């Protein structure tokens, strides 16, 4: 689908009417806060009738909300409410017929630096050890995460990865791409074609990836734990022959171990020798 060349209102003359399609409460809050700060109007929220979707709907306040199992059910509201531009922020794919309705088209917010890591798992890059991460805003096309880029913002992934720090950096990158990309979209700019990538796809994590391998280095274990926690998947560590939920993992530089595995453990904490050092692990409930 090729974006239409029409342009919408600008903040100086009252702002544009935007719709946000999302099932992620955190991303939705960041996007809608920016929409208000930039002088635009949130005209419509589209989400799904799931527990995550209900959270988004509750955060929408007085804005009209459509809880729909099928995204094409939004078509009539996009027309009737005079939406200028639709912003996809953690949602399913958009059919071409719907994407063609608003005069300024649809844009997608993707939490990776396209063309690398297209796909549904924004935390795959962290898990894999990518040195940088970020956000891309691009035009929606029929091909997944492949549309022309309107803006990108990146950040260095710290050597010692903490989920809270990563979430804050992603939030800042999101605001940066909104500030650059939304005005370009409203002005009718087509965006820049994506170059050829390495082909690394951001696939969902599987159950095997949730189990931490104590033979891996400290930094790798920190990254993988952070990525799994951010994705809402429980990391597991083998403690005294049982797989136990890992709530937090961090390296202990002052300690060394000549073997891999548990050094000491209690019901809530363990010291574990790993590939190149020692980690302290906060544990969930031990199995009975």
Strands, helices and their partners?
Blueprint: E1 17-21, H1 25-37, E2 41-47, H2 51-59, E3 65-67, H3 75-80, E4 85-89, H4 96-99, E5 106-110, H5 124-128, E6 132-139, E7 149-156, H6 163-186, H7 218-230, E8 236-239, E9 242-251, E10 261-265, E11 269-274, E12 277-283
Parallel strand pairs: 1-2, 1-4, 2-3, 4-5
Antiparallel strand pairs: 5-6, 6-7, 8-9, 9-12, 10-11, 11-12
Structural write-up:
The protein is of the alpha/beta class and 288 residues long. The protein has helices at 25-37, 51-59, 75-80, 96-99, 124-128, 163-186, 218-230, and strands at residues 17-21, 41-47, 65-67, 85-89, 106-110, 132-139, 149-156, 236-239, 242-251, 261-265, 269-274, 277-283. The strands form two sheets. A seven-stranded mixed β-sheet has the order 3-2-1-4-5-6-7, with helices on one face.
């Amino acid at each position: 689908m090729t974006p239409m060349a029409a342009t919408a209102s600008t903040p100086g003359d009252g702002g544009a009417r935007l719709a946000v399609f999302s099932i992620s409460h955190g991303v939705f809050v960041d996007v809608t806060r920016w929409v208000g700060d930039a002088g635009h109007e949130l005209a419509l929220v589209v989400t799904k009738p799931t527990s995550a979707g209900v959270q988004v709907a509750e955060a929408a306040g007085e804005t009209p909300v459509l809880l729909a199992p099928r995204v094409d059910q939004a078509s009539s509201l996009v027309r009737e409410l005079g939406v200028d531009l639709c912003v996809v922020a953690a949602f399913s794919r958009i059919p071409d017929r719907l994407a063609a309705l608003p005069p300024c088209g649809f844009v997608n917010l993707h939490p990776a630096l396209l063309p690398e890591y297209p796909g549904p798992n924004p935390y795959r890059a962290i898990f894999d050890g990518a040195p940088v991460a970020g956000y891309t805003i691009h035009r929606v096309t029929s091909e997944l995460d492949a549309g022309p880029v309107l803006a990108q913002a990146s950040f260095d992934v710290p050597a010692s990865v903490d989920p809270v720090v990563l979430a804050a950096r992603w939030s800042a990158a999101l605001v940066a791409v909104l500030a650059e990309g939304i005005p370009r979209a409203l002005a009718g700019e087509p965006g820049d074609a994506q170059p050829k990538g390495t082909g690394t796809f951001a696939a969902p994590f599987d159950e095997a990836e949730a189990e931490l391998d104590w033979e891996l280095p400290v930094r790798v274990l920190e990254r993988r734990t952070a990525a799994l926690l951010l994705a809402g998947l429980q990391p597991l560590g083998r403690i005294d022959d049982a797989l136990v939920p890992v709530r937090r993992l961090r390296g202990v530089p002052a300690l060394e171990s000549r073997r891999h595995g548990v050094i000491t453990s209690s019901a809530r904490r363990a010291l574990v020798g790993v590939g190149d050092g020692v980690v302290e692990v906060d544990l969930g409930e031990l199995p009975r």
